[in-house]
Amino acid sequence: MKTNQIMTRPMGEFKVTQRTKDGFFNATELLKQWNENSGMKKEVTKFFEVQSTGELVKVIMERENLNTQDSTYLKMRGKNGGTWMHPILFIDFAMWINPSFKYDVIKFVYDEMIKFRNLSGDAYPTMCKAVKTILPEGMFREKIKDLARSLNIIVFGKHESEMRNKIADEAKLKELYDLEMNIAQWINIGIVSNYLQLKKALTTLYYQRYPNVLPL
């Protein structure tokens, strides 16, 4: 069972609250900040009266194979109470609050994607530094290209040059970052001591993720 934690993240001049177990955001808390700042009295219930909201809820349920509306939003009482929304529904809600707020919402989403692209870029030299320590002199350039190709196939299912800059999928970029950092850690703590061991570990990981692919 995942341990649920509450994270507070900036969105423009406001703070949004997200829980880690399912990624849901507290819509009530954001709207309260907006109302206090603008002097308005908007209500979360009005958002659900909009026809497009119901249509979006149905799409989220269909695309993500969810069985009940509680899988897209739910109301809670007590500590951390309020209406909690699925991330996609929450983004739509945040843009519904006010047209001028759309910029902050879109920038929030954009910044998150760029953050993971930059993180994966930062992880790459860390991995390279570690890999260099287990390779014979003069073999690094050849083997690091081979390794980059392997990582792309594991994470993205295919290989292309500059793959990380062509993908705008936050989850995939985070996955690439984690894998590169894991490789560096395996080497630095001695779990992997040569390139053959590294390739074997990555091959095992590949077939765990793609069990229906026949081994070569």
TrEMBL record:
Q: Which residues form the signal peptide?
A: none
Q: Which domain of life is it from?
A: Bacteria
Domain KilA-N, first and last residues per copy: 5-112
Q: One Pfam family of this protein, by short name?
A: KilA-N
Which InterPro entries does the entry mention?
HTH_APSES_sf, KilA/APSES_HTH, KilA_N
Name one molecular function that GO assigns to this entry.
Answer: DNA binding
Q: What is the protein name given in its UniProt record? A: KilA-N domain-containing protein
The organism of origin for this protein: Bacteroides cellulosilyticus CL02T12C19
Q: What is the lineage of its organism?
A: Bacteria, Pseudomonadati, Bacteroidota, Bacteroidia, Bacteroidales
